[in-house]
Batch of 2 targets.
Target 1
Amino acid sequence: MPKMKTHSGTAKRFKFTGSGKIKRQRAGRNHLLEHKSSRVTRRLEGTVTVARSDVREIKRLLGK
């Protein structure tokens, strides 16, 4: 059977923590920030863990 290829778009967006959880950036913090309030942009800071319902699909795309 051939090797599984990593989905490169997914690999750029998700990283594994040391304990095996998957972390991601919040959406909506890349552009058009002038009209978004400071409260919103602060809320979108940092990384969060992926929802448990999405973990299986992301692991499949990453070949894990």
Target 2
Amino acid sequence: MPDAVAPLAFVADLRARQLTASVVLDAPCEGRPASRVNWIIRQLENAPTDLRITTSFCNARETTSLLLGDIRENPRGLLSPTDPQRAPRCFELALTRPLGLKTGKGSGSFVRENRRQVIDFYREVVQNLKAWQAKPPKLPDRAAETPETPQSGPPPFAAVEGRDIGEATTADESGRLEDPET
């Protein structure tokens, strides 16, 4: 899908007769782990309760996976069971539905049902998702930039090695600067 939050993946399991539509979102890079989980849950307020969310963690092979209905009751269930302070790396959102089994072009056919499921997944889950963006950096307050005591005039200048202020120098063959008078 052009301009979607992330690439969509669709897997048709013919043996189990299921179609799984999924999308993988990178987790925020700032905040506590619980805040990062809440970020994705807030975006899924209108998603179906049988949406499965799988969390992968930084520097770990373990993952956690729960249905959205269970996560709404206990959001901390998506955190790492071995280390709740481990930051989530990404979230996979997956929705599994039965395959269309009939042949042909009519209602319940393989192509029509799977096409409908793909469009429904995009409409119910992916369409309203936004990728995480870092907050823009803040500039320091203006009061910190202004000096407390204003200066009365320009800074003093001094003549250097017999030159007057503003007198030019020239470079010799080695690239060093030298006085034109010497």
